[in-house]
Amino acid sequence: DADLQDPPELLTDMRAAMRSQGADVVYAVRRKREGETIFKKITAAFFYRMLDRITDTPIPLDTGDFRLMTRRALDAFLSLPEQARFIRGMVAWVGFKQVPFPYDRHERHAGETKYPLGKMIRFALDAITGFSTAPLRFASHVGLILTGLSALLVLYIVAGWLMGAA
Questions:
Q1: Which residues, listed in sequence order, are joined to residue 17 by a DSSP beta bridge?
Q2: Are residues 48 and 113 both part of a single domain?
Q3: How far is the C-alpha of 166 from the C-alpha of 153, rounded, in Å?
Q4: Is 63:29 a contact under the CB 8 Å cutoff?
Q5: Nearest CA to 65 among 1, 157, 120?
Q6: What are the pLDDT digits (tens) for 72-89?
Q7: 128 Cβ partners below 8 Å, 6+ apart?
Q8: In terms of domains, do 53 and 115 share one?
Q9: Do the Cβ atoms of 88 and 80 come closer than 8 Å?
Q10: How many alpha carbons fall within 13 Å on the CB side of residue 108?
Q11: CA torsion through residues 82, 123, 77, 96, sign
Q12: The domain containing residue 164 runs over which residues?
């Protein structure tokens, strides 16, 4: 991002953490999120915790896309064919040793967010449908319930027809 919310001067420390811990990915974890509304902070916290509960891929909490990756981790990431790219989940999914790098996120120096509420909802739906089987399980259960109810309705109609015909 070019708005300097994620300070590029941290990259040196992130690289040192990568080398000292033998990691392929160092992802920034926001301890504080200055300049964001309470609504944004609460919904983001809720989203990440809910996503953590419904996915099999352990996606780090309170992270963004500010991260440092080795070439081999980046190549593995780039080889993925997904169209709707939930980068945080995809990087977690490719594996490799990944370590957190906590930092305080300061207020945006320039510009404004490119993620209004509608875009954030689409982002959340991409994450949920891309990394969770919960929507598929939900649809399957609803389909089974509706099939069962339909079968009962057919039996009821057939029974009514037979009783009325006798």
A1: none
A2: yes
A3: 20
A4: yes
A5: 1
A6: 999 888 888 877 677 777
A7: 51, 54, 134, 135
A8: yes
A9: no
A10: 11
A11: negative
A12: 134-166
120, two tokens? 């954030």
Taking only the tens of pLDDT, the chain with its 166 residues reads 556 677 788 888 889 999 999 899 998 888 777 767 788 778 888 888 888 888 877 888 778 778 889 999 998 888 888 776 777 778 888 888 888 988 887 777 666 666 677 777 877 777 777 777 777 888 899 999 999 999 999 999 999 888 886 5
The pTM (predicted TM-score) of the whole model is 0.65
In a domain, residue 160? The reply is yes
Q: CB neighbours of 115 closer than 8 A, spacing ≥ 6?
A: 123
Give the total number of structural domains in the chain: 2
The rounded distance, in Å, linking the Cα atoms of 159 and 100 is 64
- Tokens representing residue 49 in the block: 């915790």
Can you give the length of the chain in residues? Answer: 166
Cβ neighbours for 19, distance < 8 A, ≥ 6 positions apart? none
Structure tokens at 93: 């999914």
Q: Residue 39 domain-assigned?
A: yes
Which pLDDT belongs to residue 84?
A: 67
